[in-house]
Every structure is written in structure tokens, then in C-alpha cells.
Design goal:
The chain is α+β, with helices and mostly antiparallel strands. It has two helices and six strands, in the order E-E-E-H-H-E-E-E.
């Protein structure tokens, strides 16, 4: 395994993978995984930020490649991950270590919910995005500026 910062192109989208491990799978496919050992709260937050970055990029790629079934305000939350998994955009559903590794998606943050599909700026439909839930059951705001990202 190699621990590195890598830039990859996945389906035409350039993605930066910082601090990931690169492995060669049995089928000669290169697989990037997040570091397994998370030691402190800051590392957990950085890992969640990386997951959000990657997952948001894959949602955007899905929107571009599947304009008839985009991720939008009408996306069903109980089957949120299905299109990404079935379309091979992701192999493993992301979990949020700040919420006991929950992969649940909801419209509002709460304990036990890993992710929120909502506007990061209320009233701004263009800010619709996947957001994380922090350890307190609120929207994750790593910059502590009042705008979850």
C-alpha cells in the first residue's frame, strides 16, 4: 500500500485524493481507500470533509451523465444511495464516523443520521448539497462560520 496524495480522473471528473491509500485489487483495478486509523476529532472531521468532497463530485457526475434522473429537491432519501451504487459511481455507501458510522440520509440533521440532503444556505435552491451531521446532531460546520459545508 502507498499512502499518497493523488489526482485521478473518474468518468471525466478530476478528483484529488489526499491521504488515501492506493491498492491494486485482484482484477488489476486501482482502489483508493481512506485511512483506516482515525485517531482524534480533527482527523475525523478531515475524513468526513474528504468523503463529502468525493461524494459530491460523484453526485455531480451522476447528474451530468443521467439528466433524466438527477439528484435534486425531489430525490427520495430512503433510496438516496441506490442510483450511485447501481450506476457503479460508488462501491461502498459512505458512513459518517461522527454519527456512529451512520449512512442514513435525511432532510434535517439529528442523532443517528449520517448525512443531510438539503440547502446549505436556507432559501437558496442552488445550494442543495449533501451535508454531514456532527457529533451533536447538527449540520457539520468545519469552518465554524455558520454555513455548513
Amino acid at each position: 500500500m502507498i499512502r499518497a496524495t493523488a489526482v485521478g480522473v473518474f468518468g471525466g471528473v478530476c478528483v484529488v485524493l489526499a491521504g488515501c491509500e492506493r491498492k491494486m485489487a485482484a482484477n488489476s483495478e486501482i482502489v483508493y481507500t481512506a485511512p483506516i486509523a482515525i485517531r482524534d476529532d480533527r482527523s475525523i472531521e478531515e475524513g468526513v470533509q474528504m468523503q463529502l468532497h468525493m461524494t459530491r463530485a460523484l453526485i455531480q457526475l451522476h447528474k451530468i451523465q443521467n439528466p433524466d434522473t438527477p439528484y435534486d429537491a425531489d430525490t427520495r432519501l430512503d433510496t438516496f444511495w441506490d442510483a450511485l451504487v447501481q450506476g457503479s459511481y460508488i462501491k461502498v455507501i459512505p458512513t459518517n464516523p461522527m454519527q456512529n458510522n451512520s449512512s442514513k440520509v435525511a432532510a434535517k440533521p439529528a442523532h443517528g443520521i449520517g448525512w443531510v440532503w438539503a440547502e446549505s444556505i436556507p432559501g437558496n435552491a442552488r445550494s442543495l448539497s449533501l451535508l454531514a451531521v456532527d457529533v451533536n446532531g447538527h449540520l457539520f460546520d468545519p469552518n465554524r462560520d455558520g454555513i455548513p459545508n
